[in-house]
Amino acid sequence: MKISRATEADTSAISTLLGEIEDYYGGKPTPGDPDQIRSALFSPHPAATVLLARDEDGALLGMAAFTRLWPAAGADTSLYLKELYVRESARRRGVAAALMEQLKEEARTAGCSRLEWTADRDNPTALRFYEAQGVALHDGKVFYRVSV
Question: Which of 22, 45, 54, 124 is the most buried (most CB within 10 A)?
Fold first, then answer.
């Protein structure tokens, strides 16, 4: 398996994965808008970075999308995992664990003090995966969301 940062040439693949993610979460399985993806990821001020996992033949296995947050603790910076997704056909093959390890390396390289993320309480598969990674549930925050 090879994990690398997405490039603009990966826009179509990311679009397809975003459609699969929507389907996984019970939404309409509509691919992501390629223009919006290009703008969000490959503009002069990208909103996020995407890691793509591929098998030895180049087939896409999954992705992790992240950004940096500041301030974290004190004046530190943290790496925030927004989305971790592995295609159904590639699950239980170590793809998610490999992506998590690469995220930790990305955080270290960027000088971040920690890696943070949220998970849906109604996603027991994800919760078990994170627990198996040796990460304890952090009850210190309450999550809010408002549409604008």
Answer: 54
Question: What distance in Å separates the CA atoms of residue 147 and residue 87, rounded to the nearest whole number?
Answer: 29
Pairing status of strand 49-54 against strand 2-5: antiparallel
Q: Which two tokens stand for residue 135?
A: 């990460």
What are the pLDDT digits (tens) for 83-128? 999 999 999 999 999 999 999 999 999 999 999 999 988 899 999 9
How far is Cα 31 from Cα 14, in angstroms, rounded to an integer? 9
What order of strands is seen across the sheet that includes strand 49-54? Answer: 2-5, 49-54, 60-69, 78-86, 114-117
Residues 6 or more apart whose Cβ sits within 8 Å of residue 106? 49, 51, 66, 79
How wide is the angle at C-alpha 4 spanned by C-alphas 98 and 27, nearest 5°? 75
Tens digits of residue pLDDT in 8-18: 999 999 999 99
Neighbours of 35 (CB within 10 A): 9
Q: Say if pTM beats, i.e. exceeds, 0.85.
A: yes
Q: Which stretches within 83-148 are classed as H helix?
A: 95-109, 124-132
